[in-house]
Structures are given as structure tokens and as C-alpha cells.
UniProtKB/TrEMBL annotation:
Domain Endoribonuclease YicC-like C-terminal: 176-288
MF-aspect GO terms: hydrolase activity; RNA endonuclease activity
Ranges for domain Endoribonuclease YicC-like N-terminal: 2-154
Protein name: YicC domain protein
Cytoplasm found in the keyword field: no
Amino acid sequence: MIYSMTGFAAVTQELESGSLSLELRSVNSRYLEPHFRLDESFRALEPALREMIGGALSRGKVECRLNFTARSASQAPLRLNTALAEQLAQLGHSAKALLPDGQPLSVADLLRWPGVIEGECVGTEGLQEACLPLLRRGLDELSATRQREGEKLKTFLLQRVEQMDALVVSVLPYIPRLIAAYQEKLATRLKEVMGNGDDDRIRQEIALFAQKIDVDEELSRLQTHLTEMRRILEKGGAVGKRLDFLMQELNREANTLGSKSAASETTQTAMELKVLIEQMREQIQNIE
């Protein structure tokens, strides 16, 4: 698969004490750059979050937002601190034995005692247990969006490769035609100047002209690079840097083709090749 570096994911996890939400946003970058926007209660988790992101992604600037929204007091589930209540009840019996005339400890007194009724409390360990699986879900969703975008980029690039290949093939017939036209033009001039067509002189001039406009090597390298692009795109994986290198090579050959051009057709072809290369280069910046 081809993966884009652009993606977004948002996942939530409902806990008894509140709602845990995670957002992941990624854009293109030469390296993997995780950035965290965390509540203070999550700062201790940052190394574990960073390790998980590094294990799932290889490139891209990734922003991770993690928030916990506690439930209001009216919504938060309450529970009885049984151990404390039993201790208080035992103390009440002991106190009653010492002071028979005293009022016994009522249920209402017991429930009003600090700590007997408590709400759900999620400590650092509990948050880590909830956050790490949530991040895994978020990374899976982010990878899915990056994959979908990557497949679109792959289709875009393969279309441009086919267009470039067609342009390269279209140039091949021009070279023999240019040489034949130059030969005819040169023979006509020599006859006008010298009164005859010097075959040796014509052959020498034709050889020099053919060498000057020879772009077989450039066209061959262009086709080789395009074949390599197809291979890389079909193989998939983290291929962005290799594709970016191929863009440099394709651009070099297109420039040479333009500089050797001896006809408007080849000049136009070189310009069209450079436009396509620039379109591909721009999109390749987003490939992992």
C-alpha cells in the first residue's frame, strides 16, 4: 500500500467517571515529528504515547490531542467504601459498650462520614490502561485514512507516468525526420554556394548535426525512470523519498531534452514533461 502523510482520526472512550477523547492529525514532513497537546494528568503517559506512534508511523508531523471530561457530580456513579464503613460500624459498637447511654451511630451518620461515599476516581494507572488502547484505535483509524489518501495519490501518479511515457514515445519519430530535413536543406545550400552537392561534406555536417540533437540516451533514461516509478508504486510501503529522488532524475533528463531540442515539437514535449513532473513532485511531498 501507498500511504499519504495527511490524515485525521477522532475516537472516544466512555468511562464511569467521564469521557476520554483522542484526536490525531498528520501532515507531511521529512521525518516523524509527534507533538502532544495533553492535560497535565496525562503528561506521565507521553513517553508511552510517543513510542506507540513511532511504532505505527514512519514519517509525518503528527499532532496528538488527549482530553478527559469528568462527569458532573449528579451523573457520576457513587459507591460505598465498605472497608471504612465496617470500621466505623465496629467503632460504633465499641463506643456503645463504653457509653451505654450514648446515641448509637445511625446509617445517616455513617453515610455522612467523610470518605464513606466516594465517586469513581481514575488514577494514572487507570488512565494509562484506558488511553493506550484508545491510541491504538486512533492510530488504526489514522492509518486507514492515510491509506485511502495514498491510493488516490498512487492513481494520480500512475496516470501522469502513462502521460509521460506517451510523450517520450511520441518524440522518437521526430529525430530521423529532423536529420532527413537537415540533410535536404544542407544539400540545397551547398548546391547554391558551390554549384554541386559535396557528398563527403554533407555526410560530415549530417553526422555533427545528428550528434548534436541525439537524445536517444535521454529518452532511454526517461523510460527507465518511469518503469522504476511503476515498480515502486506497485511495491508500496514508505516510498516517498525514493519517488522524490526519481523526480530529480526525471527533471534532469527533461531539461537536457529541452536544451538539445532542434524543433518546436521536441521543445513542446520537454515543456509538457516538466509540467507533469512538477505535478507529481508536489503530490509526492505528501507520500510517506
